[in-house]
Amino acid sequence: MNCPFCGHHESKVVDSRPTDEGQSIRRRRECIDCGRRFTTYEKVEELPLIVIKKSRNREAFNRNKLLNGIIKSCEKRPVALQDIEKIVDEIEKYLYNSMEKEIKTEFIGELVMDQLKKLDEVAYVRFASVYREFKDINTFMGELRKLLKEKTREF
């Protein structure tokens, strides 16, 4: 680490402590040459995750877009924000752990629907209707029939 004051390339760590709830480390350093102190931060480098849209356009993964989509499908439902955030956390963690650099929105949508189906069936149907772009009442009813069939298999 180069000293910001004299440019010397050697320094020693005087103090080190976690910050940002353990997401980074704050280090207090002292330059070996000039003796002045400065602070550095160390954190894990995250690889950017690219989402491939249905239109084949690419954009950076946006956690807030995912969160807002799920919140919208859960409007006026007895679903706690904490449960929604847990779903988003799990999906985001899964995507980053997959080590894929590019992920299709279809895959993300399926992950969301799997989670919503367990959490709230109405929210699931709402999300699915937008995500799968139901064109008419028959495709909507087909999805409801599948859901009912799964429900009766559970009993």
Automatic annotation (TrEMBL):
This is Transcriptional repressor NrdR. The keyword Nucleotide-binding applies. PANTHER family: TRANSCRIPTIONAL REPRESSOR NRDR. Negatively regulates transcription of bacterial ribonucleotide reductase nrd genes and operons by binding to NrdR-boxes. Binds 1 zinc ion. The lineage of its organism: Bacteria, Bacillati, Bacillota, Clostridia, Peptostreptococcales. It comes from the Bacteria. Residues 49-139 form the ATP-cone domain. GO terms for molecular function: ATP binding; DNA binding; zinc ion binding. Its cofactor is Zn(2+). Pfam families: ATP-cone, Zn_ribbon_NrdR. A zinc finger (unnamed) spans 3-34. Residues 7-21 have a biased composition (Basic and acidic residues). The keyword Repressor applies. Belongs to the NrdR family.
